[in-house]
Amino acid sequence: MWRPPQKIKWKPAPGEWPSREQALASRLFSPLRAGPFELATRTWVPAMVPWRGTDDGFVTQDNVDWYARFAAGRPGAIVVEATGIRDVPSGRLLRIGHDRFVPGLRRIADAVRQASGGETKLFIQLIDFLSIRRRTEPEKFLGRHLAITDRHRRALGLADAPDAEVRRALLALPEERLAEVLDARELEALRMGARERVTDLDLPHVRALPEVLPDLFAGAARRAREAGFDGVELHYAHAYTMASFLSALNTRTDGYGGSRENRLRLPLEVFERVRAEVGGDYAVGCRFLSEDCIDGGSTLDDSTVFGVAFARAGMDFLSLSRGGKFEDAKQPAIGAAAYPYTGPSGYECMPAHVSDERGPFGRNVEPSARIRAAIREAGMATPIVVTGGVHGFAQAEELLASDRADVVGFARASLADPDWFVKVRSGHGNQVATCIYANYCEALDERHEEVTCQLWDRVDLDEPGIRKSKDGKRRLTPAAWTGPK
Ligand SMILES: Cc1cc2nc3c(=O)[nH]c(=O)nc-3n(C[C@H](O)[C@H](O)[C@H](O)COP(=O)(O)O)c2cc1C
Question: What pLDDT is recorded for position 483?
Fold first, then answer.
């Protein structure tokens, strides 16, 4: 995890908790209706991958328990973790790229409905991503994977030499010389692991993305509807394919890169195809970045244009995140893949308690509010979900009261205490277990281990019937809240 150099330590400050009457009269716990997008309260659990799927992307009992546990806290909505839209192996990430995944996903939808008494709406985040390889030992990369070309031969003065000789010469080079002989992408592949980009137009499957993605997203959205979800969230954020199309770093020359209009083209085409598939009475929104937070990436000016375009196209909600990019990620260990939350842009996405003068709480508020204001000025009322470091009632209420958000996302705060919502609404906010923003959960996510929270995963480990992590040392869901104590 990257830390701002100032290393200022912040403590969560949830502030005063409301009485039951104050909570019931609040904006946060008031309903929102906007076409097919209806919430009983303006509280939102954003997508969080808990690494509980099977190796081939099916829902497990642990996934079902996880979402049922969040639903017991009765947030207005839960967004199910980033779920792959293709029918290809994707590790333990959930998948929705084939009808065989529908029954498992339906179990989540049923469990959430039951645990929340039908109150919590359920969305699913639909994701596409390009290939990223693990970093290998230099011996393997230079000795086997690297495609040897005449450029390498020329640089080494080994014209006509067989590949094996070129590989031996490369392996004998000191690091600085290697940086002269390899091109930037080869060096990146050596140091970070090879990573495809949307600009790799020489790769036929990358060139074909605009042809294949609309149907893939549409098929996934149809399955989400069949599985009983209340809507879909198109994942246009962070380090993944659709965010890379929106990014200012997208220089594709086929009409899908360069200008803002061109970068928006595929995201809008995907949305139109999804809308045509699921119809106007089904909630379709997207998550996108208020800022890329990397050199040369999209800025708030870009995102404001994107937000207005998405709203104008008829998206039912827009959820804003920030950062989370590969471009500034830390070098992974050999055998691991780069993780897009390890650099400064990752910090902007999931800021931890060691921070700078601005602190980790609400860094996404002002940029999101500007995007919302631009959408309102353009005459549209599309609900805006704002997330990032929100953990107190007063903070959330103020965001709504000051017209900077319509719905408030609580990711790590709800992971620390999924009962945040029911406790605060019933006047028992003083019993909330407040997230300390140590990013214990994020470290587990980085290792693709079952995500839990340090505030609860060792509590009452001997409770009968609870499910535990593979090593048996952590419980997978927090104990139930049995009411006021
Ligand atoms: C363990 C973990 C997994 C996450 N997985 C996703 C994901 O699948 N999709 C997504 O858009 N964001 C994901 N996020 C980011 C959160 O949705 C959220 O934007 C971020 O944690 C900042 O909000 P917070 O300060 O309320 O935690 C994840 C965050 C965590 C901690």
Answer: 85
Q: Report how far residue 176's alpha carbon sits from residue 300's, in angstroms, rounded to the nearest whole number.
A: 37
Q: Strands 8-9, 354-355: parallel, antiparallel or unpaired by DSSP?
A: antiparallel
CA separation, residue 65 to residues 47, 60, 307 (Å)? 16, 9, 35
DSSP 334: T
What b/e sequence results for 38-70 when a residue is b if at least 16 CB atoms lie within 10 Å of its CB, and e otherwise?
Answer: bbbbbbbbbbbbbbbbeeebbbbebbbbbbbbb
- Dmax over Cα atoms in the chain, in whole Å? 83
Å from CA of 48 to ligand 1 middle? 5
Q: How far apart are the first and last CA of the chain?
A: 37
Question: What is the Cα–Cα distance from 149 to 156, expressed in whole angstroms?
Answer: 11
The predicted model scores a pTM of 0.97
Q: Are 252 and 99 in contact (CB under 8 A)?
A: no
Question: Looking at residues 150-173, what average pLDDT do you find?
Answer: 94
Q: Which atom of ligand 1 is nearest to the CA of 441?
A: 1
* CA separation for the pair 276, 315 (Å, rounded): 12
Q: Give alpha helix (H) positions in 322-419.
A: 344-349, 365-377, 393-401, 412-416
DSSP H or E run through 83 = strand 77-84
**Pair 387, 321: CB distance under 8 Å:** yes
Distance 410 CA to ligand 1 centre (A): 9
- DSSP class of residue 101 equals G
C-alpha dihedral sign at 85, 86, 87, 91: negative
CA-closest residue to ligand 1 atom 9: 47
- Asked if 230 and 123 count as a contact pair (C-beta separation under 8 A), the reply is yes
Helix, coil or strand: residue 32:
strand
pLDDT, tens digit (0-9, with 9 covering 90-100), for 114-152:
999 999 999 999 999 999 999 999 999 999 999 999 999
Q: State the distance from the centre of ligand 1 to the C-alpha of 388, rounded, in angstroms.
A: 9
Residue nearest to ligand 1 atom 19, measured at CA: 321
Please report which confidence band the pLDDT of residue 175 belongs to, taking 50, 70 and 90 as the band edges.
Answer: confident
Percent of the chain with pLDDT over 70: 100
Please state, in angstroms and rounded to a whole number, the distance separating the CA atoms of residues 360 and 437.
Answer: 8
Q: Tokens 């893949």: give the residue.
A: 337
Q: pLDDT of 36-58, one tens digit each?
A: 999 999 999 999 999 999 999 99
By CB atoms closer than 10 A (0-12, 13-18, 19+), residue 30 is middle
Q: How far is the CA of 409 from the centre of ligand 1 (A)?
A: 10
How far does the centroid of ligand 1 lie from the alpha carbon of residue 235, in Å? 12
pLDDT at residue 163, rounded to an integer: 95
Q: Which residues have CB under 6 Å of ligand 1? A: 46-49, 81-82, 125, 237, 287, 321, 349-350, 387-390, 409-413, 441-442, 445, 451
